[in-house]
Amino acid sequence: MFPKDFLWGGAVAANQCEGAWDEDGKGESIQDHLPDGVKGKPSEEVESRNLKLKGIDFYHRYQEDIAMFAHMGFKVFRFSIAWSRIFPRGDEEEPNEKGLAFYDKVIDTCLQYGIEPLITLSHYETPYHLAKVYDGWRDRRMIEFFARYARTVFTRYRGKVRLWLTFNEINSIWNFPLMSAGILTPKAKLTRQDLYQAAHHELVASALAVKIGHEIDAQNQIGCMVLGAANYPRTCDPADMLAVMKENQDACFFTDVHMRGSYPAYARKRMEREHIQLQIEKEDNEILKHTCDFLSFSYYMSKCLAAEPEKYDVTSANLSWGVRNPCLAQTEWGWQIDPQGLRYLLNMYYERYEKPLFIVENGLGAKDVLLKEAKDGYMVEDDYRIRYMNDHLLQVARAIELDGVEVMGYTVWGCIDLISASGAEMKKRYGLIYVDRNDDGSGTMARCRKKSFYWYAEVIRQNGANLIDHPQSA
Ligand code: BGP
Fold first, then answer.
1. Tell me, what's the pLDDT at 472?
2. Which ligand 1 atom is the nearest neighbour of the CA of 420?
3. Which one of 249, 330, 368, 447 is at 20 to 30 Å from 208 when CA atoms are compared?
């Protein structure tokens, strides 16, 4: 079913779990100014109500947390480095030693348990100074700052870390330029030209990081990361299918450049049509040729597209939106649940690039209820989460077994409860480990296991052999 060396694990991001927002020389990141998540306005000041400032205190509890991941049998742990811990402002020449030392400890703890670190260089946490002074990735100088940061961490963790991702969900720049690309100018004031130019800078920076990473250590495997969603036509009207094609082009724009090393024809044509003239320096096209070793993506849902979307109900989605699919159930946050969409997406990417794929985020955000007393060692009976993961993993197995897709691994999102990205809330929980923290800031931060903790441990132990084929997931 799953290959013997399949990388089972979990994923988090620094700004959603570390806390310690101003400790040991860390600079402010844009997340310290987004108390309401992606949909709220940025605050001028850092407001104490922002749950991310303390997160789930991973900064001080990483040992206990990684030990729990080890109990589940994790082979890999995906986390991000907070850029502003290493370069507090982002544009200085010298790194902050205390920030580097923190990740030494996290990495060493993982290695001690035989867990391989998978590090995201930039997960929605651009240093605030870069947003304020340079308007984030709109400014070409960001390439140089990012390259310096990447070089610093590749060098420091050389020989210990082999798996890297450049930008988390790089394609979310279209909808959320601030969180995704550190652009403080309000979205309404940005032109398509602005967004494409910023995307170009990020793409060059990403390819440059691949180049630098390979030069520093030939063992490094560096992937891109996109927000993946399966897109379906709402009806069999060919016009709906063309709406899907356009959406897929927007989504694959980033993977095409990352995996093929140049701008695809449809993107060049679209820019021409929209009178977008990218400023491309002469070295850029050479740099872009440094393609990624693998493609990674998040997968939470699918959506429908239609030529006339106003005729249908809409569905709020993971940082995007679309037309609702009447065939699918949805989560409490209105994300449509579609395990088969994951098999479809794996096939789409693999057919397109024939390079290894890594599912680095997938999971269920739900309102968990604590039991009054422990039952068989757990405090939350989250059968719904087990069912969600089971059904998705079964489709991964089918993609591997029946379709021949090469999948490197699977890291469940928010393996431990953390602050959500879109709503900056705690009550939307993804973890297999419960954290005692609430939206009003109360809670002891104590950790306890959910039923899914034991279930996932068994899945890993049996390398997926215990997954159940429910009739609906066939
Ligand atoms: C992805 C982000 C993550 C994460 C996840 C779930 O888009 O990469 O950071 O949070 O979505 O989203 P949310 O936390 O909004 O439920």
1. 60
2. 14
3. 249
